[in-house]
Design a protein that fits this description.
The chain is of the alpha+beta class. It has a domain of 108 residues: Winged helix-like DNA-binding domain superfamily/Winged helix DNA-binding domain (Arc Repressor Mutant, subunit A, Orthogonal Bundle), CATH 1.10.10. The chain is 33% helix and 9% strand. It has seven helices and five strands. The strands form two sheets. The chain has a three-stranded antiparallel sheet. Strands 3-4 form a two-stranded antiparallel ribbon. Strand 3 and strand 4 form a beta hairpin. The longest helix has 13 residues. It is elongated. The relative contact order is 0.13.
Length: 164
């Protein structure tokens, strides 16, 4: 007969649960690994009763994900755009002059103050109809139109073959 399970033994530590309905959404399926990892990090800090007061600064998130602080900013924006998280309190200086980090809410669960879960990620759809944005060429950055660029290219003297 097997011994009953005792807490603290055999790896009975914390875990992060990602519901199946969340993973089946288009918002999750089309998201890159970086924002997904950030979502898992936010979910790690959720204890079941602190939704809306999950504290995670960009600096701490960057350290946890082993990426640059500037990179993490894009991850936060993408998670907010797709409806997975919501910022409940912006970073600011506290009364003693010490900076206080942002507070976040996961949109899959109700917040601590009783506000219902938004679940906007379920309704999120990609804009596949619009073509991807083209990068500006160096000539476009210099203020030249496409017609001017073509004219410059066609009026160039042709290279002479050295063996002709």
């Amino acid at each position: 007969m097997a011994k009953p399970y005792k807490h603290g033994k055999r790896g009975g530590g914390k875990f992060v649960q990602l519901p199946e309905y969340l993973q089946r959404t288009e918002a999750w399926a089309t998201m890159k690994p970086g924002p997904r990892a950030l979502y898992v990090e936010l979910k790690r800090r959720f204890n079941g009763s602190n939704n809306g007061e999950i504290i995670l600064s960009h600096r701490d998130a960057a350290k946890a994900l082993n990426v640059n602080r500037n990179t993490v900013t894009g991850y936060f924006h993408e998670l907010q755009e797709r409806g997975f998280i919501r910022q409940t309190e912006a970073p600011h200086l506290g009364p003693s002059g010490i900076g206080l980090a942002s507070k976040w809410a996961l949109e899959e669960a109700p917040t601590k103050d009783g506000k219902a879960a938004g679940k906007a990620f379920v309704r999120w759809r990609s804009n596949s109809e619009s073509p991807p944005k083209k990068r500006d060429t160096p000539s476009q950055k210099a203020g030249r139109s496409e017609a001017e660029v073509i004219e410059l290219r066609t009026n160039r003297p042709k290279k002479r073959d050295a063996f002709a």
